[in-house]
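Protein details
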Amino acid sequence: MDINHFMKQFQNITFAFLILTVIMKTNLIAQTNSENYQHEIKQWHQNRETNLKKESGWLTVSGLFWLDEGENTFGSGKENKIVFPDGKADAKIGSLILIKDEVRLNILPNIEVKRNDTLFSSGIIFSNDLEEQSVILSHKNLRWFIIKRGNRYGVRLRDLESDARKNFTHIECFPVIEKWKVNATFEAPNSKKTIPIHDVIGNTTETTFGGTLKFEIDGKSYTLDATLEGEDDLFIVFGDYTNGVKTYGAGRFLYAKKPKEGNKLVLDFNKSYNPPCAFTDFATCPLPPDQNKLPFEVLAGELKYGNH
C-alpha cells in the first residue's frame, strides 16, 4: 500500500469519525433538551396542583351567594337569606347590607369574625374603591369575600376543610409531546380595544384585547385571540374537539408572554389547564369566544377532572 492511498483512507476514516461524533453530540443535546422540557412541564404541573390545594385555591370554594338589595342575613340557620354549610358556622352570624354599589357587614354580638385576621364587628367590606378579595372575612374554617359580576354582587365562600380539598390527589394530563409547543406570530391591535367575553353565568364582559396569535399545526394555519392581563400576559380561552369527551366541556385556559421585541412567541399547549369550573360549581368562568374554537383535537395539557 503506498503512502498516498494510506493517507486517503486515514482521511476518510477521520472524516467519518468526525461526522459520527457530531451526530452523537447532536442526538445527546436533543435528548438533554427533551428531558429538560419534560422536567419543565412536570414542574409546572406540580406547581399548578400545589396552588389548587392552597387555602386560596379553587378546591376550597364551596359557595356563591348573590346579594339582594338591602339586608341579607347569613349563618348556618335555614332562616337566613344566605345559608352557610350546616355544622361549619354559627346559626346566625350577622347581616350583609347591599346599598347600590356598597356592601356593609354587621356582625352579631359574641360572634367571632375576623377581617384580614383582625377581629371585626361592623363596616364596609366592598365598594368601588376596594378591589375584589382585598377584604377577606373568616369565621371558624370558613372564609368569604365579595365579588362583582356584571351588575350583581355575591359572596364567594371558601371552606378550608372542603371534601374537594381533602380528597384531591392529582389531575391527569395528556402525554407531553413537543409537537404541541409551537412558535406563533403575534399581531398586536392597532389601537386599544375590547372584545366581548361570555361566562358560564350568562354575563358578557368587554375585556381588553391583547392581540391575535397565528400558528401552524400539522401544516395548517390557525389563530387564537388573547385578552391582556397586566403589562405582558396574554390570556387565551380556547375550545377544541376534545371538550366534553377527554377534556373539560367548556374549554381550557392557556397563557403566553407578549413578546418584548419583534412579533414571535411560544404557545405551549402542554400547559393548557382546566378552568376553575372544572373543580367547583361556584366559579364564574369565561367561555371560549367563537373565534377560539379550534377545529381539531388538542391532545395536550390537562384532562377532565372528576365529574365536571
